[in-house]
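Can anyone check this?
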Amino acid sequence: MATHQYITDQQGLYQSLLAGHDSAFEYLYKALHHRVGGFVYTSGGNREDIKIVVHEAIIALVFNLRYGHYEWREETQLLTYVTGIARNKWSEMRRSKNRYVALDADTPIPISDDPQQTDMEEQDFEQRRLNVSQGLAQLGDKCRQSINLYYIQKKTMSEIASLLGWANENVAKKEKYRCLKKLRQLMGLTNWAD
C-alpha cells in the first residue's frame, strides 16, 4: 500500500501498523509530528519535547496494538486516537514539570527545511520503535503487564499490586522499576538520560 493512501484509508493504516510495515510507521510519525507539533510548541515546548511526545505516543500505540488494547473501529479514526495519546503525554510531561498547559492550541510548528535532519530524526525514531518492540517481547508477562498497567492504563500502584498478585504497593513500585530498568537495558539504554 502506498504511503499516500494512508491519508484516506485509516483501516489500511491500522492493518499496516499491525503488520509492522516501516512505511506505515514513517507516515504515522510525520502525521503525528504535524498534528501535535503546534500544540506542544505553543504551550511552551520545543523541538525536543515534540520528538519525545511523538515517540512516547507511538510507543504507547505499538504496545496497545501488540497486546490487543486497541482494535480498529469504523467510527474512530486511528490518527485521532494516537493524537489523543500524544496530547495526554504532553499534558503529563507539563504537569510533571509544573508548567501551564494550553489545551486548545492547534498552531502548526515550522518544520525543518533540512531533509538530512528530518531523515536522521526518522531513522532515530524507527530504531527506538524497534528497540521498544523487541525489548517488550523479551520481558516476562508480569513485567509487560506492569508497564502496560502503569504507563498505558494509568493504574495506581495499589491497583497494579492487586491485579498482579504482589503483596503491596511498595512491591509493585519496586517490580515496575525493575521491569523498566530491564526494558531500558534490552533497548541498549544505560542511564535515564538516554
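Reply from J.R.: I decoded it. Helices lie at 10-19, 22-42, 47-66, 78-96, 115-138, 141-152, 157-164, 169-186.
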